[in-house]
């Protein structure tokens, strides 16, 4: 069993690199194209790619949650102790904020920012429920049937969800909080973050409930 400090560093580092990729690729894409569709594509591909990398290399250390919604589900399933789950969430939020600051520093922007990008309406909230529900169902189904494929499944799912959800699939409370501190292409107004977080938690819990029934181990399978 990997010790707790390594787990927490892995969660903080992974979330930091994820957010740095989301924000940084958004800045780069927005600078290179005036077309929002092209910019979104430039934001999508790096995000899906980095998820595959981070889950592959850090999954054996911490489980590679990088997401309080994922941690909440694993705690609810009793796969993670409550105290360790809270520590994971704190590490993820801190790492996400650090990722935003790092992206700003790389592009020589003011490091401390507050987003002014509005993302608020019923469609966006429904989209976040759907995005997070799908993400957690992907993880739970992958762990049940093809654990070795989870990095690719998650990277591909998020890449798709960028395009089929009205919110462009945040699906992660730590990422939402961190993006509130970036007044860039990837940003979200801090006032809009709480509704996103609540929608993400709702989607995660719905996926946990359905996944617990849908992906029950086959007791008749040969051993």
From TrEMBL:
The keyword Transmembrane helix applies. It is found in: Membrane. Keywords: Membrane, Transmembrane, Transmembrane helix, Transport. GO terms for cellular component: membrane. It comes from the Bacteria. One of its GO terms (molecular function) is channel activity. The chain crosses the membrane at residues 12-29, 49-74, 86-105, 125-143, 150-175, 195-216. The keyword NADP does not apply. It is a multi-pass membrane protein. Belongs to the MIP/aquaporin (TC 1.A.8) family. This is Glycerol uptake facilitator-like aquaporin. It comes from Silicimonas algicola.
């Amino acid at each position: 069993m990997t010790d707790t400090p390594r787990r927490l560093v892995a969660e903080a580092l992974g979330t930091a690199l994820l957010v740095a990729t989301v924000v940084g690729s958004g800045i780069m894409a927005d600078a290179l194209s005036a077309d929002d569709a092209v910019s979104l594509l430039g934001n999508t591909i790096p995000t899906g790619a980095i998820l595959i990398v981070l889950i592959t290399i850090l999954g054996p250390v911490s489980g590679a949650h990088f997401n309080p919604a994922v941690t909440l589900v694993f705690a609810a399933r009793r796969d993670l102790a409550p105290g360790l789950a809270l520590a994971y969430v704190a590490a993820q939020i801190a790492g996400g904020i650090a990722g935003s600051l790092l992206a700003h520093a790389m592009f020589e922007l003011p490091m401390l920012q507050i987003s002014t990008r509005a993302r608020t309406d019923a469609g966006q909230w429904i989209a976040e429920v759907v995005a997070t529900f799908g993400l957690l169902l992907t993880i739970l189904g992958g762990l049940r049937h093809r654990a070795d494929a989870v990095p690719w499944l998650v990277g591909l799912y998020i890449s798709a969800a960028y395009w089929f959800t009205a919110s462009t699939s945040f699906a992660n409370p730590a990422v939402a909080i961190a993006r509130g501190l970036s007044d860039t292409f990837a940003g979200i107004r801090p006032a809009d973050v709480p509704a996103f977080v609540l929608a993400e938690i709702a989607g995660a819990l719905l996926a946990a409930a359905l996944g617990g029934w849908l992906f029950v181990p086959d007791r008749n399978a040969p051993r």
